[in-house]
Amino acid sequence: MNHIVETVTFRSDVWVEGISVYVPHYFMPHREFALTTGVDPDKYTAGLGCKNMAITHPVEDAVTMAAEAGENLFTWWGFDPDDFGLLIVATETGVDWAKPVASYIHQFLSLPSDCRAFDLQHACFGATGALSMAAGWICSGMSGGRKALVIATDIAKYEVGSAGEATQGAGAVALAVGAGAETTKRVFSPNFSLNAVYSQNVMDFWRPGYSQNAVVNGKYSIECYLKALGACYTKYRMGGGRSYRQFSYLLFHLPFPKMAWKAVLKLEEIESEISGSALADGELADFYEKRVSPSTFGARQIGNIYCGSVYLAMASLLEVEKDCAAGEEIALFSYGSGCCAEFFTAVIGGRREIWEGKIGLLKALSRRERLDYKTYLEFRKVSDGLAHSESFSVGRIPAGQHIPPELRYMFLGYKRNRRMYITSIAERDYWSDKVRSGAQSQF
Ligand code: COA
Fold this sequence. Notes:
Shape: globular
Radius of gyration: 21 Å
Largest sheet: 5 strands, mixed
Number of strands: 16
Bound molecules: coenzyme A
Low-confidence stretches: 1-8
Oligomer: single chain
Strand order of the largest sheet: 1-7-6-4-5
Structural class: alpha/beta
Strand content: 15-25%
Distance between the termini: 56 Å
């Protein structure tokens, strides 16, 4: 049976009560990347809409970034770990075939022992799958009044010299999800009742188990994305959903920023058929500038962060768009290669003061450092080395060189098949001192 629109009625008081991001400390401008590699910079800036690419330090992975985003959320929003009864980490760049990233995060964030903790994987769709599961867990009554923590974390990585390399990025987004929040804690309420889903088995993007890098059939992937968007939007409209033109803002999963414009063109193509009237070119460009462009800010500065992409768009909207206020209705489109996609809506809950200074996107961008192409390649090499078994030794712990000063969590390599992490600034200083003094003691 083909469900045109899912008909479950959700509690209307499921709220995202906090959202914080983690952005890597280093970035490489696309212009510099293009010039160094012999590409016309306009291809990346005008053609793909990119500006800067976030680069992770070799001591960072999906675990450390998720922990940093979670710490930010707890510290800046004032949550208590005991508030949470569910942790779902959405990632497509996890670090183990069996052990979830969530197990590490459960410990690092001191979550209670009766908090469920697991990962959810479906390419870039994972976080939307996790958010809808969290909302369902709350609506079902299983939560017992506790909150869910959803963290999206990924490092987008392709072969050096491949077409996908220009769309790399990295970052994490943490969301606290609850119900019945006071008005002073309402950020946005996702609505998964009037939505539309599309799934199909396609080989547009994947990462084979033996590879650190993703494989992408880029042009085909864009086709699959637009096909899924078209199918979702048509189902959503046929099921009683409103025209995309009536939403205050539209947020898209962004493998690269220009994808948002391609997506709007697709929506307009379908909408003009349904409504029998088309927007003039100027009107469409104006619509895009006002209602879509603000949410592409993060992707332009960071690149693709896979699972967190559409929530980075939300973080961008909240931080960058000064007019975004309570009651604004938003349409979101989440796409995960492979593929699974969902068109759903959300409403903004409160005033700017609720999230001002607590999301962390602008703050993180303001303290980033620029990296040259040569160092970017060196970072990749060290990172690939750390991914091998028995790569840990005290002598290899970098004693501060290039390590971002704000990092609380660091991956140091494997020892007896276990991933070794530093989990606080104090621990980091302790080991840095040991390295400086030439000590060879082990963890
Ligand atoms: N000046 C201005 N624009 C230029 C240009 C120049 N000198 N050179 C190229 N362009 C434009 C192209 O016209 C194209 O725009 P269009 O799609 O609107 O026509 C765009 O820049 C990209 O050029 P293209 O030749 O298609 O680039 P490519 O073959 O290197 O591939 C991607 C681009 C996006 C397909 C590739 O980077 C990729 O595979 N990215 C990963 C996508 C992904 O992550 N998918 C999975 C998740 S959804």
